[in-house]
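Form P-L/3: holo structure prediction, ligand iron/sulfur cluster.
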Amino acid sequence: MKSDGIPSGCAISGLMSEDGRRIGGKVIIRSIACMHDRSNGLGGGFAAYGIYPKRKDMYAFHMMFDNMQAKENTEEFFKDHFNVDKDEAIPTQRQNGVSNPPILWRYFLEVPENKLEFLSERDYVTKTVMKIHSEIDGAFVASSGMNMGAFKGVGYPEDIGSFYKLEDYSAYIWTSHGRFPTNTPGWWGGAHPFTLLDWSVVHNGEISSYGINKRYLEMFGYKLELRTDTEVIAYMFDLLVRKHKLPVEKAAEALAAPFWKDIDRMESQKKKIAIALRQVYGSTLLNGPFSIIIGHNRGMIGLNDRIKLRPMTAARKDDMLYMASEESAIREIAPDLDEVWSPMAGTPVFGTLKAEVE
Amino acid sequence: MESQLPAEFIVNINHERCRKCKRCVINCSFSAIEFKDKVTANNRQCVACHRCATFCPENAITIIHNPLDYKDGYNWSPEIRKNILKQAESGGIILTGMGNPRPYPIYWDHMLIDACQVTNPSIDPLREPMELRTYLGAKPEALEFEGDIDNISLKTELAPQVKLDIPIVFAAMSYGAISLNAHKALAMAAKRMGTLMNTGEGGLHEDLAGYTDRIIVQVASGRFGVTSKYLNNSALVEIKIGQGAKPGIGGHLPGEKVGEDISKTRMIPVGTDALSPAPHHDIYSIEDLSQLIYAIKETTDYKKPVSVKIAAVHNVAAIASGIVRAGADIVMIDGFRGGTGAAPMVIRDHVGIPIELALAAVDDRLRQEGIRNRASILVGGSIRQSADVVKAIALGADACVIGTASLIAMGCRVCQKCYTGNCAWGIATQKPELVRRLNPEVGADRLCNLLTAWGHEIQEVLGSLGINAIESLRGSRERLRGVGLSQETLDILGIKHAGIGQ
Ligand code: SF4
Ligand code: SF4
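OUTPUT (holo model):
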């Protein structure tokens, strides 16, 4: 069928088992492939949680290198900064649709005790990631969390998925993204998800408050050099939840805050919190059209902009939570659902790993 | 020897139209119009306040620049020569009123605002909520909560905050510099619009008692009218260190303006000069300033934010940083185009720096030091239109203050004769017969209309930027581009040149 319409707007999809059941990568590829027309072959990617149970207490760095020199320099750097438990090529399979991949390598790292005199372990890792991006030419950290990883590149998401042989992995959270890039050219590092530590973000839309979000984060030592609005979201969750210790619900409320007219009608306790969040975290408010799925080790968060300028559907079936740009992408992998809904603008959806699940 | 300065303006009276009603004579507060058989003008007295022409029922009066007041010259301009003559005659400082009229670059006019297109749609401000509300006051770096998520409460106690429904505040103008009716109009409008007016250093007149939650009271070096009741009858307290129109210069209200009412409000004897020198004689260091800030906080039981107002000067960023560290909740920066009731012309026209550059430098510095949250930034100094407000907020201000613009809304014709006390529009005067000319209700309506109009315009711009909350504009310099500015200026402003994308 020939269509005159211009398909645009990126695709996102995410699924999670709150019971912590591991699900094979084929499922998420099928879901994102269903929205093929929402991407244009310039970027696709996946984040997977729970994929390295054997080394779950180590930082799994997924690296992209433009050349061998960058790899050598980074390995020198890793030697100085970490104990390297293991490193290996990220398994891939060459095929049509994915061209010019960089060197893809992963490292399982531990932070030596003596590095933590003045810093928390996570601050140390964060700093290291920023350092690699700003100091080592041709090296890019695709992900740096524990027991998780990002698999991304230039191509349609389903091609990227089979390129990385995702069918060989199983995860309790999968998120994915098909990209229709506008602001930045398609490049391997620029594909979604964007990550920091175990935070990963896939995003459909554009953040029109990027300028101030970026300047705000810079005040807290984050370096934003990837020229994309998506990285601010990952860093913002890192700042608000990890460093400022806000509950994820409150962090989500800061990023997609209720309107003043709704705050004015809240009961007093809620109102006090809502006002304080806007007063203190006004610079973290995300504006512009977006639907995003944020993954982290303990759960998945779906967030829509305040007036719902981008689509987002959520659904549940037993222990599963699904979120995607289109209902079709969910029905494709779970035709029989308990509940399907379109989350209200600015109203987050949370998936939470059961407390006892490791 | 008298210099016999030629008149700056010529008042033309069309005697065929004139029906000799003498309204122009009554209305001219500068004695430029007399009636001898027919209306005659003393051109040399005319200040172009337009009062006569406005009120002539026959449209019989036109006022023009005297085309031959001096032979033109770029270097020895008529104004320079006129000033030399005046000083050759008087031996005195040349006084003037209102803001700096010289043709320095106006950086606002060299900055353009972004707009959304296909990938990031604009927002329709008529249909979607566009939020202009903002809060002034010190914010903590982070919030702390307690309890579990179903029963969560805030552990952090925030410093006092003042809510603004629109990020535009009326600038400090004292009772004395402007009339009580002008003050009343500003207070009424501030209340109606959910914003603030600033008493300036003149004290708080008892007629404004009902508006205290919408009033900024000022503590200037003269300490006029400053009592603990005065400090507590306010939304916030501002310590005035400097003023944009006259950095390093204090205030002087001549004794003849100090009548009964002003004497009571300022707590000085009738007929005495009210001098508020530039230096506060208890502040000679940043530590002293800190002491005053905390003395005020003690007096107001830590319930009012304390603001410190400074003029934009070369080292403004470092000064502002010191002020924030000294405990101020708000830094108010006033640019060199700010207005004034009276200032030596040499100061007004040559001292200080443009607010655009000062604001950009201060916001940057506070961010570099990680203390931007600790204080709100207010800026003023010739904010002329809603676009200036938008650009100022994008550069990093929390809100803007408007002085001259609010006077113009009430009828001021920018004749720059405020220091004479003869304001024909009842604004910058204490003469009862002139004050009467300004009806506070009408003035308030006009001020509210101005703010309403600017508010709608700001919402339109926000919509075009694809944002619906003013806090997403604050400091978002990425959405500005410079046109025709040097690289150095662009660097100071922290913006890119037009034509450069993300
Ligand atoms: S106000 Fe107009 S009509 Fe009346 S006296 Fe003056 S010039 Fe004549
Ligand atoms: S306030 Fe009055 S005297 Fe001053 S410039 Fe305006 S109109 Fe002229």
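COMMENT: Confidence is low (pLDDT under 50) at residues 1-8 of chain A.
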